Here is the input.
Amino acid sequence: MTTDSTAPGVRIRDLTVVYKTPAGELPAVSGVDLTLTPGTITGIVGESGSGKSTLALSLLNAVQPPGRIAKGSVEIDGLGDVLTLGGEDLRRARGRQVGYVFQAAQNSLNPLKSIGKQLLDLGRSHDVADLRALVRDAKDLLARMGMDGARVLDSHQHELSGGMRQRVGIMLALALNAKVVVLDEPTTALDMITQATILRIIREIHEERSLTTLIITHDVGAVAEVADDLAVMYGGRVVEHGPINEVIGAPAHPYTRGLIRAIPRLSGDISLARALPGRPPTLGTLPVAGCVFRERCDTRMEVCETAEPAAVVRGGRTAACHALEHSPAPVRRKEYA
Ligand SMILES: Nc1ncnc2c1ncn2[C@@H]1O[C@H](COP(=O)(O)OP(=O)(O)OP(=O)(O)O)[C@@H](O)[C@H]1O
Here is the structure.
């Protein structure tokens, strides 16, 4: 872990984000508390629909209708509560203070402009004084990711493969030297080897620049190589969070155990690897009371039907499960300094 005082901390508190549906407004993210320690990489994992992207968008106050941030705060050191920012302040913060690659990065480039022109537009819109340096840095970043920087900057999106566009997205997220970087599925279009290389480069740049980084992925195995902390989402909740080695080595939540069991290279035994049975809930099928994971849980108890488990803290780890609350080990309620 890089503990550098210049890296900002991020504190998400009681964040609830809802989407308007025919059945009314339903929560995609519910009462999430999550702290990103300055200088760390946090991986967020969870099955499709668990709320990862919605949480990432909230860090930029970028949830779009039919979505709405209903409650909570996202405090970033040096920026304040992002959810209170609007207009020009928000536009400036995006890219400059919080760099991001959204999930659809591959498709979010402008098809009519070369990558270089888009880079210059980005620089100009953020009043970058030295555009030459911006281009030089961009070429360096692209070269580190295994591409011919000059050629990529001259190219239009249709001339690049999905994997190349994804790397361009990462370059654009890093181009303005933001200190908080949010990467939503940054490597999904890449083969396994390139994926590992790009994640390693992200780690290197993270350390060189003293960043605080959030990486969202389906792939616990991939993020395990680079992250310091892991947050596990299910049904719009962060059900477990803590140092990644501890969470993977001794998962406290039954959902985390299921996720890890499904990955032989983490569980260490291919004969034991088995898929988590059942399906994750959708907005429409999320239970309104009790634990959201109970339908798929192998340690389900009576209380899980009616009461939502509170997050409990043990050392630097949190997990929200009734089985933990009822276990004999000392447990203290979640609290914040
Ligand atoms: N624009 C929208 N309108 C309605 N519901 C939405 C919208 N965007 C997301 N949702 C719902 O919110 C929930 C969380 O979605 P989100 O995309 O944040 O999850 P995710 O964990 O990032 O999933 P994935 O890994 O598939 O990207 C899902 O049930 C999804 O269907």
